[in-house]
Design brief:
This is Cation:proton antiporter. The chain is an alpha+beta fold and 128 residues long. Strands 1-3-2 form a three-stranded antiparallel β-sheet, covered by helices on one side. Strand 2 and strand 3 form a beta hairpin.
Length: 128
């Protein structure tokens, strides 16, 4: 089941990059998604994928809220923190984690460390 989710993730990325839904582009996208190397040994649990998709649903309204907060009240404090990568993450789930962190206006992933850490830049309101 998670193999299909990896394939769908690759197709979604392809369509976001090309912004073209013609028959030829769909055929090329499916071909590219199938030809990219797969890691058959590391199987992500369906539970991890469903949790990540649930976090995406929550991140969309959070992004709008943060955008309005930045417009209405200045955020002048910046900090760089290290966040631990959850265990047993496949490359697809790591991509989704980085996407979620970067999707919200107040945070961006600066670097993914192979030892299991994300370097995250955040903006915050100045503390009184």
């Amino acid at each position: 089941m998670t193999g299909y989710l990896n394939l769908i993730l690759r197709l979604v990325i392809w369509f976001l990059l090309t912004a073209n839904f013609s028959v030829v582009n769909i055929i090329i996208g499916v071909s590219v998604a199938l030809l990219l190397p797969h890691n058959h040994r590391s199987r992500a649990a369906l539970k991890d994928w469903l949790r990540a998709l649930g976090e995406i649903v929550v991140a969309i309204p959070q992004a709008y809220i943060e955008a309005f907060q930045i417009m209405l009240r200045p955020h002048t404090q910046e900090e760089v923190t290290m966040e631990r990568v959850p265990p047993r993450r496949t490359p697809g789930l790591i991509f989704l984690d980085i996407f979620l962190i970067t999707f919200t206006p107040k945070t961006i992933v600066l670097k993914y460390h192979e030892h299991g850490w994300y370097e995250v830049h955040r903006v915050r309101r100045r503390k009184a």
